[in-house]
Amino acid sequence: ALKASGLVGFIRFLQGYYLILIKKHKKAGKIGHHYILSIESTTLVPLFAETTFRNRDEKHFKDQFNNLNLSKDFYFSYSYELSRTVQQNLADALRGTAGERLRPLMLERDPSKHHRFVWNFHHMTPLLQKEGWQHWCLSIIHGFFACTRCSSFGWTFEVALVARRSRFYAGTRYRKRGLNVDGQVGNDA
Length: 189
Hints:
Number of strands: 7
Strand content: 25-35%
Helix content: 10-25%
Order of helices and strands: EEEHEHHEEE
Structural class: alpha+beta
């Protein structure tokens, strides 16, 4: 039996589709009562009967994909949308309690609810194409997360920092700063 913590999405090489699963995660901290988790290891599960045809090329592509270290600086939460600001999440929660029907974030066309920080958005497209399957979608962000408990004048509080990298304007720190011609930022904190 295969155990997994979450579904990153699907990827296709030469022979067919693979499921990208989170095998292991660890707690990175909390925002409110929502746990923020970091990916420790992933696995590829073939969704086809593997053959020896093109096996060498298929192995090369799998090795290339596995060289992408998803265990470094990738975060997710089961109950909190890390790809959006606290203000956006609170506004949606208030609208939801007021009875307004909210669409799943991945299907939103409203630019204020953009999913530019969801790094696995492309890998989720097979699930997004099916109505009602969006609950399987787990938003993964790439960036930095830190949470610490502070104390000042007898008050104890927690401070969390979430820095996210855009999937549209990604690159090394020295080459991607500021805005591109479409107004996309490279980083957001």
